[in-house]
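Anyone? Bumping this.
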Amino acid sequence: MTGVTQRRNGIRGAVAVAGIGETTYYKHGHAAESEYVLALKAILRAAEDAGIDPRDIDGFASYSNDRNDPSRIAAALGIRELRLANMHWGGGGGGVAAAIANGAAAIVAGFAECVVVFRALAQGQFRRFGEALPDRAVTGDAAYLSPYGVLSPAQKYAMRATRFMHDYGIGNDALRAIAMASYNHAQRNPRAIRYGRPLDRQTYDESRWIVEPVNRLYDCCQENDGAAALILVSAERAKDLPKKPAYILAAAQGSEYRSAAPALNSALMPTASFSTVAPRLYEAAGLTPADIDVVQSYENFTTGVLMAIVEHGFCSPGEADEFFTLENLSAPSGRMPLNTSGGNLAEGYVHGLGLQLEAVRQIRGDSSNQVPNAKLALTIGGPMVSPVSSLIMGSEETLL
Amino acid sequence: MSGAFYLPEGMPAPEPAADGLDAAFWKGTRNGELRVQRCGQCGTWQWGPEWLCHQCQSFDMRWEKVEGRGIIYSWERPWHPVHPVLREFGPYLVVMVELPHAGGVRMIGNLLGPVGQEVEIGAEVEAVFEPHDEAPVPYTLVQWQHVS
């Protein structure tokens, strides 16, 4: 970073993840409990993991319009005083790293001392994301898309990816490597919905198209019921708690110029929306892609991972075919171990919060696909939406 | 009317926004005109519609008739049906069409012709208006076909 003035970064090392928790991940519609109960259980498990009394939680941060109201949860848990109830705008997983960043910023600002970041989904109780509403009439943005059969996220985002892969001559083998890395990692993760259900090359290649030419079945995230949560406290407090702290080193959120222009008219159409966020993240962290030991990158679709990783500087678009191989993406010894829990594709889909928990496990050293001596973990949320977010966590030695 | 439309009847029908933002666009397609927003102050083209110009922040947005021609910017062939009326229908083709003569704005439509046809980014296409006269609120979609 010689010659570059490092951006002011007030959260660096000031806040740590002290606890993580999740419920069982279920196939969509299969949870026996309501979304709200799933949220409560994930929060309690995160508090237990952190070694704190759940009544000491004083802040909540979430994203994607989570339906579970912090005030109700605070009353239900007997929380002594609610000091922060923060919702990050935007849909999908674009806000997953931002919600953690917002919670961390609130702790640094003194608004709260113990913030839980959570997300709960029960798509059986509510609706699936991948199915169109049975509306007869549509207005606004949808009027320019839905009548032509562009209804689902897969159909909206394939336009970006098709153009990106065309521009750089990237083949679908790169997408297969991303899918297979997640499935391979899930085979060693008993929490994963796809545990015991490996994916081989032939099964991928013969799977049906969801949206040709970029999304086969295995390129698309699952839709699940479940909840996940993590507990943020100050670095000083984290040192006195039982689990090894995962420190927040830097975070960035947002999107580039007119990223969300209506009717899919993004100024930079063939991107995952990180062209400004990723450089800002590295600048704030004082790090480069070469420093990162392990990456957890939100998979709505493998195409989003492909573009997000390129935009985070791990390879140029022209190098993508060579870079995105199963070997390179696999723990423990790949060049860039990716989605080591199985991620949204194979572990469970709770809008990417599971991937943040996995980054914490890597820093702690207790992932089921541990990257030896992992000190720096990058997490990426919400490719192709706006706003997106990404974040870097580190172990204590990275604070020096 | 079945057979006159690219996608089956029962797909979501577009209606002008209640606040009037894009009434002129849908009125135009009823008359076989493709209209794009353009700033009355600085001439910037804009799509989709907004209340003000993203370049100069003027609220003087006008609707200009443009030639229904463009080039394919991106495309897709959805197979998995996500709407009930598509369940027995099979795959279909969607194109994103760039209009170089209107500031490079991009519009979404279906590509008429065989669903299995090869689609090339950069190919020239022309607009084909698809009226839905029997709909409760009649409307006209803008579809695309290769320039012969």
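Late reply, but here is one note on the structure posted above: The CA atoms of residues 13 and 135 of chain B lie 8 Å apart.
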